[in-house]
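Help!! Second protein's tokens look totally different from the first
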Amino acid sequence: TQSTWGIEFNSKIEMAEASLLKQLKIKLGSVKRIHKEYASYQKEEEKQNERINKLELENQDEYTIRKQKEVLEEIKVMYPNVKSRLSEAYNDLKNFLDENLQDEQIKDATETLEAQDILSSIKEFLATI
């Protein structure tokens, strides 16, 4: 049988196994992307705090400072949403690995090792936020 990408598979089982590796890559990518998104909000919050401190030191008008504080609050509002999505993606990847780790297609894949490392670090990260 031939896939849409021109790869030939000898059986439906090989197609399913390739599908497992593809699913693993997608789930791993999601965890990494959402973690990166959380980190970008942290950086943005830090920059915004610095901006507010600078404005306060320069004795800028209250309106400007207040508007910048509103921007800061908008950034902080995003944390629960991103944390929730990261937790969900973490659980999805963890459950996928728990169910499929012994499968020949992904058992020795580099993505599996990377996923296990990511799961470990994300578990620690989620405990701190």
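Here's the second one for comparison:
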Amino acid sequence: IIDQNIVISIMDELFFFFQAEDGIRDAQESRGLGDVYKRQVHGDVSNIWLLYNTRKGWGYTTDQLPTTHSIAGDVKHTDAAENIFDGITYAKGAATLKQLLSLIGEERFSQAMKIYFKRFAWDNATLDDLLQCMREVCETSIDISVNPHLDLSLWKQDWLCTPSLNQLLIDWNPQTFAVNPVVTAKQTPVNGKFPVLRYHKMKLALVNSKCEITQVKDVIIQKEQNTTITFEGQADIQAILVNYQDEAYIKVLPDQHTLKFIRQNLSSIPDPLSRMMLWRSIWEMVRDANLSSLEFFEIFRNNVETEQNETIIKDIWDYMQVNYASYIPKEIDEKHKISSSLFTLALKMLQSERGQDESFQIILRKFLIGFARTEENIAFLSQWFNNEVEDLQNIRPGIEAVSYTHLTLPTIYSVQISVVAVSLKKKKQKKKKTQQKKKT
């Protein structure tokens, strides 16, 4: 049975030990590789990259703070190590490792890793040891003078030794794309204190009016402000998916044409990972004050009901919760109508056919409680907590309901009583089953 969180943790931990040049322990004992983790995972990994992208968001957020720092650096002692256990070391580190794999190719990467693990089995290693193994494989088949983006010394300096990240905006014209299928990728630094531009290996995908991906192109974003990319001419292109399949670590700014199209069609994009990445980009626009909180609410309302993936549903409801609490101004006269609309939406989704699924219930019930801001909605909650709502009799509130401070004490008490009652009921049922088994 697969534990998807273990897979994400392996990626995080693998890079953490690679990047710690001087280690986080006594230099006489270890120089950075750390202990050997032997974990095996079997099963369906189709949802792994969605979870990975969610985790990657931690890196994006941390890397945009004033406290950003480089991935690689000297760690003199364990006290100093406490300050680097963050989204940059873990999430950005794992994303950078994935970018390296995409950059040199899976076959070369695998060969280099085999050499690395064989050479340093039961021994200590440094980041430079890892990169040397990569060079040994790459130098036999790659001309660095022709492919400067594969210069691993430059890659190390730009990606591991320099803080912050880049952002990318695509400039194109859907009206003339059929005859002039050229786009310009504009790269800029997110933080002016660290103005470095980087090489980025990624894919761009074209989407037509039926939300079908019609063309995918592998590209190298150059280490300069503008990169020109030419596709095969096609009519009816409505959107461009940047960093398709999530190979690169870069902040994507949706262009105006893509943003216009996905306002109504985001949930119809066939690839779940692309939908998740689009949602993150839109949310980043709200945080950067490039998209209003009310516009985000409209995009959310247009797409959330038809979204089928539970990981994405959870993430975008989380975004909406923060959007309501922190970005929609309190001064807006109709803010209570927005909360009521969100309450109704969560309730409708719980009452749908999917609402019979327990994992779906766990996701939605906390948002139903969280957006109960009007007297009418809170009264409905009280009825639900007392098992008086027929449509929700099979859906019990979780203990997380107690944490919502906007609820009145009697309502919270009814939640606590309900949770305890359900817990006792389950214990009795379990005890009864155990006794029956013993009799059998």
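Reply: Different proteins will give different token patterns, so don't panic. Strands lie at 166-171, 182-189, 200-208, 213-221, 226-230, 237-242, 251-253.
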